[in-house]
Design goal:
The chain has 438 residues and is of the alpha/beta class.
Length: 438
């Protein structure tokens, strides 16, 4: 993949003026030393080096004040760096949605603001008029385009801003917490746009505190802490590093839904369900029925690689004998959401099975050899080397004659059914009577 942007030892310094009031206060402060304005240097970024290629979806996460939004604004050209270099490939068009209202004038109508905002992004009036109808249709604000946007709600601001960004056909899209406002229907529309954007080989840089959004959109995470790059790698490991940083504060770790009222909290759009593909109920039932159809008995031992939010465990724990179900999960937040939210709703005690949670695919504490093992949606969340480590760990724990199923659970699909290929030929899937790996 070709490089689209790169930061080299990027640094940004702000000067903070404390006790700086009006003209009268500053004049009196010259006479009273204790009242004089105090200047302080604040380094929002220090020596950050990141390379981003075309087609990547990168999340910038970190605690408040870590420098995420500052980095995004430097890339967008809003701020200039104090030190280092910000390099962008020649000809790359960058579109941004960084703050609600950026590029809008409150006294102008929605229509006028579309023309203003697109001109800021470098479009001529003719080019802006050419995409105007698409912007209006996407935003769903046709009846409000002649209204000054000072009368818009925050959700309407977000709709119009994202509609413009989505229709500029940029090469790089910069997003900062865009899912904090907006209704569920529009969020689904945005997600569909972002998926299409990535399929077209475009690039996304996304700032968020939401594990759900990060896992749904991004395949790479950069963790910032106090203006420095602490981690750059896969999503699960990045969220784990973020969780470790948050352990130093009393705040709840990123992405964990509060289980205080588990009986009434809406779950269909909960982050831990979306993180595994968005078909939580169907996937859990599919895995359970799939293993039973392949001969799984309650007295055998089964290992689920990627037990996650307990979609399959909520079925298997009921079916298997005590301690015969073992689940492995790499993402501790996903595991906690499953144990604290999903299993209580299903009236299933986690003590009926065993769970291993670590970053290293370490199954050494499991004393059993497994008759069945399965890896499904976990593979969506792993880089290639992680998939290889997952396979190696699971295969080493198989009993003689045991079977390891590797599947992407799609409800109603049979991975062993014959498939018609694009050229018209028919191929046969692997058969379930093969040993070791299917």
């Amino acid at each position: 993949m070709s490089l689209v942007l790169e930061t080299r030892q990027l640094s940004k310094r702000f000067v903070l003026n404390h006790n700086a009031g009006d003209v009268k206060s500053r004049a009196l402060g010259m006479l009273r030393a204790g009242d004089r304005a105090r200047r302080e240097e604040f380094w929002a970024l220090r020596g950050v080096s990141i390379r981003v290629s075309a087609g990547e979806s990168v999340a910038l996460i970190g605690r408040n004040g870590s420098g995420k939004s500052t980095l995004l604004k430097i890339i967008a050209g809003i701020h200039r760096p104090t030190g280092g270099q910000m390099l962008v490939r020649r000809g790359v068009r960058i579109s941004s949605m960084i703050e609600l209202g950026t590029g809008f004038h409150p006294e102008l109508t929605g229509q006028e603001n579309v023309l203003l905002n697109t001109s800021i992004h470098g479009l001529s009036r003719a080019e802006a008029l050419a995409i105007y109808d698409r912007v209006v249709a996407y935003s769903g604000l046709r009846h409000f385009m002649d209204v000054p946007i000072k009368n818009y709600s925050s959700g309407m601001h977000m709709r119009l801003g994202f509609a413009i960004a989505a229709n500029l056909d940029p090469d790089v899209l910069l997003l900062d917490e865009i899912f904090a406002v907006g209704d569920e229907e529009f969020q689904r529309q945005c997600m569909g746009t972002l998926e299409s954007f990535l399929e077209a080989g475009k690039t996304i840089l996304f700032v968020s505190h939401s594990a759900a959004a990060v896992q749904a959109i991004c395949r790479r995470v950069c963790v910032l802490e106090r203006g420095q790059l602490r981690f750059d790698g896969d999503v699960d490991s990045g969220l784990t590093e973020y969780r470790r940083l948050n352990q130093a504060s009393p705040h709840q770790p990123v992405g964990v839904d509060a289980p205080a009222d588990a009986s009434t909290a809406p779950l269909d759009r909960s982050w831990h369900r979306l993180a595994t593909g968005g078909k939580w109920d169907e996937e859990g039932a599919w895995v359970f029925e799939f293993l039973r159809a392949r001969g799984l008995r309650p007295d055998q031992y089964v290992l689920e690689m990627g037990s996650g939010s307990m979609a399959a465990a909520s079925h298997l724990l009921r079916y298997m004998e005590q301690s015969h179900y073992w689940g492995f999960e790499k993402n501790a937040e996903l595991f906690l959401a499953g144990v604290q939210i999903e299993l209580p709703r299903a009236d299933v005690r986690p003590e009926r099975g065993h769970f291993l949670v670590n970053d290293d695919f370490d199954l050494s504490s499991a004393p059993h050899a497994f008759d069945f093992a399965i890896a499904g949606s976990l593979l969506r969340r792993l880089p290639l080397n992680g998939v290889a480590r997952c396979f190696a760990s699971a295969i080493r724990k198989l009993a003689p004659g045991g079977t390891f199923f590797v599947a992407w659970p799609e409800p109603g699909a049979d991975p062993f059914a014959p498939r018609v290929q694009p050229d018209g030929t028919t191929t046969q899937g692997d058969r379930p009577d093969r040993k070791s790996v299917v």
